[in-house]
Write a structure and sequence with these properties.
Blueprint: H1 3-33, E1 35-36, E2 39-40, H2 45-76, E3 134-142, E4 151-158, E5 163-168, H3 187-204, E6 210-215, H4 216-225, E7 229-233, E8 237-241, E9 246-250, E10 253-257, H5 259-267, H6 281-299, H7 308-318, E11 319-321, H8 325-336, E12 343-347, E13 350-355, E14 358-363, H9 365-376, E15 391-393, E16 398-400
Parallel strand pairs: 3-6, 5-12
Antiparallel strand pairs: 1-2, 3-4, 4-5, 6-11, 7-10, 8-9, 13-14, 15-16
Helix pairs in contact: 2-8, 4-5, 4-7, 5-6, 7-8
């Protein structure tokens, strides 16, 4: 063989080797990309079975963890004590008619000459038994600086049907107290939590089982613990109050809010220029209820169950309450049994009135009794007007379920300032 033949054979061998290496490299790339001749390469049955097994193990581990958490709560939790004293019995009085007070210049919201005393009849003796596994709770939200209780709610938890009814008491609700500003919002600062509980019991006609006073700090911390809350802010909110360390700056629209922003939403009443909700405090309460609905839905999501121990710890450490840690765990456990549609919010029925220039909320007695007995009463016997101490004003006359009517001059004079 000539030297030229040997060289030619060497070139051919080198070319074939290069082609083989090129094909091998292309095959490896196809394998890595999962494609061969334009078609995706199907995973083997063995790989699919392995991936499915891993998924099942992860799901089983999560469920096992959740079951352990729920088991721990069930062992630790303790149902709160209930007030079994029955419906309240009010003392009645029949005050004499008073002379007409002089009307200040420009005043259009003074009462008439004759307050109307309307003591309710003494209730007939009837045994009021507690409904089993039904509990009542007073929830109060107050700011960090002062003693303002802008959020007051009465809740009934029915652990048989796994439902919760929560009724808001507007901050300006008229109450029969001896000091000048006769609003429910003034009671906590003047008489403490015991005085506020007693006043709420007079409004609902039965003893409240437990109370919890939550400050804005723990509210913020709980929101941040669950990663914020998605909420549709209804209006522009701009307000500054350095005395309360409250600064609100929010634009309307659906957005993710952190703890501080959520506090801004629930505390907002009006902007710096006096604008705000067209329907005043009722708009504020409606926004609070809408926000709480959004919060409930997010907390009830599966992913937030693991945050419950931290939430319970925050509540225990930062709340003024007569609930034990076991009671709080009990409510947390019952809460997990509910769906978002099982938790309903309502507002005390009222009329907006003015007394000596001050804005008040006057309770509509009959609708209020119906709301109490439908959504709040934990007893087998209906609450009647005789069980309540409710002072009302219709723009002209006062009425009272006990017959006790305060003198007009005992009210704070907002005209005088």
């Amino acid at each position: 063989m000539s030297i030229f033949s040997r060289k030619g054979g060497a070139h051919e061998n080198a070319a074939r080797k290069k082609d083989t290496e090129t094909e091998s490299f292309a095959h490896r790339m196809e394998t890595l990309s999962g494609e061969t001749d334009g078609r995706k390469k199907k995973p083997s049955e063995k790989k699919k079975a392995r991936a499915f097994t891993v998924t099942l193990i992860v799901i089983a581990s999560i469920l096992a963890l959740l079951l352990l958490v729920l088991l721990a709560y069930s062992i630790w939790s303790t149902a709160p004590e209930t007030d079994n004293s029955g419906l309240k019995t009010q003392e009645t009085a029949t005050p004499e008619a008073t002379a007409a007070p002089s009307m200040p210049a420009g005043a259009t919201a003074q009462p008439s000459a004759t307050p109307t005393a309307s003591p309710s009849p003494t209730p007939e003796e009837e045994s009021a038994q507690r409904k089993e596994n039904v509990y009542t709770l007073l929830i109060v939200g107050r700011d960090r600086v002062g003693l303002n209780t802008d959020t007051i709610m009465v809740a009934r938890f029915d652990c048989n049907n796994h439902t919760a009814n929560i009724v808001s008491i507007p901050r300006d609700t008229l109450v029969n107290v001896p000091w000048a500003v006769k609003k429910i919002n003034s009671v906590y600062g003047s008489a403490g939590i015991d005085g506020l509980v007693a006043e709420i019991e007079d409004l609902v006609g039965f003893g409240i089982d437990s109370y919890a006073v939550v400050n804005t700090y723990v509210f913020q911390q709980i929101i941040d613990c669950i990663g914020g809350v998605y909420f549709d802010v209804p209006i522009y909110m701009y307000y500054d109050d350095p005395e309360q360390d409250l600064y609100i700056s929010l634009s309307p629209g659906y957005q993710l809010l952190n703890g501080d922003q959520c506090e801004q939403v629930v505390r907002f009443r009006q902007n710096n220029d006096g604008t705000g909700y067209p329907n005043g405090d009722i708009g504020r309460i409606e926004t609070q209820h809408a926000f709480l609905n959004a919060l409930v839905k997010q907390v009830l999501q599966l992913g937030n169950i693991s945050n419950l121990p931290q939430i319970i710890s925050l509540v225990i450490d930062n709340t003024d309450t007569n609930l034990s840690s076991g009671n709080i765990a009990f409510y947390a456990q019952e809460f997990l049994k509910m769906r978002s549609e099982d938790i309903n919010f309502y507002t005390l029925p009222y009329d907006s009135v003015y007394i000596r220039g001050g804005s008040y909320v006057s309770i509509q007695l009959e609708p209020w009794l119906d709301m109490i007995n439908t959504y709040l009463n934990p007893f087998t016997v209906d609450v009647t007007a005789a069980n309540l101490d409710v002072l009302s004003f219709d723009g002209t006359n006062f009425t009272s379920t006990t017959g006790s009517i305060p003198d007009i001059y005992t009210f704070y004079d907002y005209f005088a300032g």
